[in-house]
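A further point concerns the way the authors explain their paired sequence and structure data. Each protein is reduced to its one-letter sequence and a matching series of backbone shape codes. An entry of this sort, consisting of the sequence and the corresponding backbone structure tokens, reads as follows:
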Amino acid sequence: MMSAFSLNAVSPRQGRSAESLAAEPHMARALEWFDQNSDWITEQQIRITEVPAPPFQEAARAAVLKKLLEQCGLKVRIDDVGNVIGERAGSDTRNVILLAAHLDTVFPADIDVRVRRDGSRLLAPGISDNGAGLAGLVGLARALHEGKVRTRNTLVFAANVGEEGEGNLRGMRKLVETYRGRLRYVIALDGGSIDHIVTRALASRRVEIVVTGPGGHSWSDFGMPNPIHAVARGIAQFVKVRIPDDPRTTFNVGQIEGGTSVNSIPYRASIKVDLRSGSEVELERLEKELREAMRRAIEEEMAAARQTGGSARSISSRLESKFRVLGIRPAGELPADSPLLAAAREADRFLGLRSRLDQSSTDANVPLSMGIDAIAIGAGGRSGGAHSLNEWYEPTGRELGLKRLLLTTVAVAELAPRERPAGGK
């Protein structure tokens, strides 16, 4: 992970100052709109959050975002993978600035996502990740519309699918493919926090290991190799693997499935594992360690089964395994002299914010891995408990995050030249 440091540590590229942007009449109206309509944005965040959006089931929430973006004066469509896309044409349409917030959450459809209030806090699974990002996307589109801000470059607002779980960033991959020849910058809105700017894409792999056997009765077939036992042995071995502090590397066994009843030897067991590292080399090593741990575990379970005896049928039975990669998130890094980073730093300086540069796994991984300048930032407010049933969000300070987003976006999109009045010189 990159070291934290003040945004004043490196001077941004020369460009239009945030003061001059904020003083432009249309921009001033857009910035003021945030102060006057924070409650409206919060209402939209609640509305969005209360529509379940598990991975691969984002359609209902997509319909809500489509209507909201249409109300911001955008011509909106839904593409063939489920992304909601609204374009705001610039005076010069050759370049595109993509603003994206993911639709999906980590929670299954049967989780209660109704929003509760506890003082100034809103509580619900997904209220911040990514209710805050989606509300910020809508808020930005509405502020530009109300302020009548016109930009030189085209702005594309996307509520995309496939960021969480096994989505494998399929929504962002499609967006980059669609706009590849024109795509200049990407800003991913993820959560609420404004204390960091993600400029380095954290590489990750998500894998599934399935172990199968014949199954049997827990009493009469005792001694038959057991897929759940094998998986358990493998996990116990793998979690002892050496993990370096630098580059930071992590693993997580996130799902275990298998079995049909308590008194049956299962015929199938599976695990899903998330592997992450700041180094592709370390990631490769970690995957090899996982494969080897499961191979040894299956051999040990087969040996134990032979030792316990069992019936002739169980002795001849074997366990088999399949290893499947569910998703790969590529690594990448934003150049230190990127105009996009300079614009974000300049906005922070103007607003009195002190952000740190960070490394994470987000939708920005895709463009960064392809050499396209991209960052991931929060849309403002305070939050905690992401990916848990106790997730919460507090709108306090939301306006700062949205103003930062507006100033950063317009700085790289550039204000369109003003039209002279008829008869003017």
Notes: The chain has two domains: 7-202+331-413, 203-329. The two ends are 54 Å apart (CA to CA). Residues 203-329 form a domain with the Alpha-Beta Plaits fold (CATH 3.30.70.360).
